[in-house]
Amino acid sequence: MSLRLSTVILPHRRWHEGSRAAWQRAEELGFHTAYTYDHLSWRSFRDGPWFGAVPTLTAAASVTERMRLGTLVTSPNFRHPVTLAKELISLDDISGGRVTLGIGAGGTGFDATTLLKSDQEPWTPRERADRLAEFVPLLDRLLTEDGKDGVSYEGDFYSAHEARNIPGCVQRPRLPFAVAATGPRGLRLAARYGQAWVTTGDPKLYENGTPEQSLQALRGQAERLADVCAEHARDVSDLDKILLTGFTPDRGRPLESLGAFVDFAGRHQELGFTEIVVHWPIPDSDFAADEKVFEQIAMEAPAQLG
Q1: Contacting residues for 89 by C-beta, under 8 A, at least 6 apart
Q2: pTM of the predicted structure, to 2 decimals
Q3: CA 20 to 30 Å from 44, out of 109, 196, 246, 283?
Q4: DSSP β-ladder status, 151-154 and 159-163
Q5: What pLDDT digit, counting tens, does each position of 117-133 carry?
């Protein structure tokens, strides 16, 4: 399978002050998918502009025609399956069936604390995993069961009472899930419900690890995914494998030149990755890159990678 190249456009600019142009240019450059982060805010961008993912993707759908659109990633940190399902069905309709939902357990950042009361502690990793394990199956039902009886469910964290989502997704049986996971519980969700698996690598290697160590860690993650798929009688080759770049020890070096990127992407393609996602350049940030080189990579790298 040829390697697909996608991008993630952070929602940090006003629509008419550069954001619209970026989404349109992404389609012109031939990116397979343009994603955005689904956060209330994120790291160093916390004190600056930051817009909502679903409205941004809805606007992007209205100014593009072919490119797929999606989130990397949506989490239960501030989402509820019932309301999210309604938004996703609407977005899938507006886009003509071009939406992929990247979904994961979420982290410990601003999303995890914004909605808490002052005396509440943020969810632990286990608690986030518990919620995701309930969130994904319920969302799957909400997006696939579009009959007049609706979906009813009562769990430990989420409930639904005759939630109706008529007419359902344009994509059948529902829009695809790209499940971000490295631990056993998340990998099981990917194997059971995912059309794709997402990873950013091993975060413990980001500061002091080497690219070679990162490749080995990613190889291990892919092998664990294959094992879990086998346990669920699922062929691991049925899942796309997506690497969101920028969080491995390579950092921004793959975007320094076309050759550097082709070398980086080729080494990960050998591990079985089918899609590489690069961040749209943002000056004076962790995602700074030469825009001319970035565009050259977008236009020329896919052909070299086959």
Answers
A1: 143, 165, 167, 168, 169
A2: 0.97
A3: 196
A4: antiparallel
A5: 999 999 999 999 999 99
